[in-house]
Amino acid sequence: MIFVDYFIFPGIVFTMIVAFIVSWIDRKVTALLQWRVGPPLLQPVYDFLKLMKKETLIPKGGSVTVFLLSPVISFSALVLVSLILVKTNLNGMGFVGDLFVVIYLLLLPSFAVIMGGASSANPLASLGASREMKMVLSYELPFIMSVCTILIKTGGLIDIAGIIQYQQNNGVLIGSLSGFLAFFVTLLCFQSKMAQIPFDIPEAEQEIMGGTMIEYSGPPLGFFVASRWILMALLPYLAVILFMGGIGSYIGILKYILLVVVVILIKNTNPRLRINQTLRLFWGPVTLLAALSVVLAMMGL
Predict the structure, then answer these.
(1) pLDDT tens figures, 120-140
(2) pLDDT for the residue 260
(3) What are phi and psi for residue 115, nearest 5 degrees?
(4) Which band of pLDDT confidence, cut at 50, 70 and 90, is reported for residue 9?
(5) Residue 93's domain spans which residues?
(6) Which residues, 6+ apart, have CB-to-CB distance to 206 below 8 Å?
(7) With helix as H, strand as E and coil as C, how does the chain read?
(8) pLDDT at 81 over 70
């Protein structure tokens, strides 16, 4: 049973299948917006397998252990998040405080990118790692404040199953003013956590030629790429759970798909921001909106 949970459903196999599908939706919608046909359904699978078969090159002068472990840590943390979210949403098999565990695990991919870039001994990768670090410091505060709004609205529930049950009994949180503001802030924070345009600053191929990923190749790069795909699949799912009552029927699945498309549309309709613009955005208006959502939640709105 443990083997099935961790490796089949909702473990690695299921997580990767969903990540492949979401990645294909991303590329297909992007292609349609650009008047192109787009790739076939299995293209993400082909791309991942191609990376897994390529040679792994180790940069001279870098920390080999940290360089190779970083993508594995990122991938493993996200598989654990998938395991927690899916089992909790479908079976209510969560535990007290699992919301905090998910928040912690979602930080690990960013830390892995920082460690991987810094350990590669490449100045462009180090610059990308520095940008990633600044982004984490900017978006985590408003995200945590949005979570505080959820805790206030639900009466202090810190387990995901309890938050889902509360919304089933009392209506979805996005239906309230404070819940909508918290959802909007969370969506911006998730866009930054995924390093999607306009927040793809750590990689910025036109500026720093891939940044944190510049020295990666073969399976390590494959694990980082898969982590990005999994993030794009998990974060909209988490937003649906926290603000829209979870996915319990075809309506919940439709909400999830629509939110994924919204993320893709944001990515394809905005220019990249500079790192100083991103810091001003999250430490300024976004944090103020998050604080306003907390105040409104305390007022019962």
Answers:
(1) 888 888 888 999 999 999 999
(2) 92
(3) -65, -40
(4) confident
(5) 2-55+62-298
(6) none
(7) CHHHHHHHCCCHHHHHHHHHHHHHHHHHHHHHHCCCCCCCCCHHHHHHHHHHHCCCCCCCCCCHHHHHHHHHHHHHHHHHHHHHHHHHHHHCCCCCCHHHHHHHHHHHHHHHHHHHHHCCCCHHHHHHHHHHHHHHHHHHHHHHHHHHHHHHHCCCCCCHHHHHHHHHHHCCHHHCHHHHHHHHHHHHHHHHHCCCCCCCCCCCHHHHCCHHHCCCCHHHHHHHHHHHHHHHHHHHHHHHHHHHCCCCCHHHHHHHHHHHHHHHHHHHCCCCCCHHHHHHHHHHHHHHHHHHHHHHHHCCC
(8) yes
Residue identified by tokens 């490449």 is: 122
Per-residue pLDDT, 226: 94
Rg (CA), the chain: 19
Is the pLDDT score of 28 beyond 90? yes
- Total structural domains within the chain: 1
- Single-letter residue type at 259: L
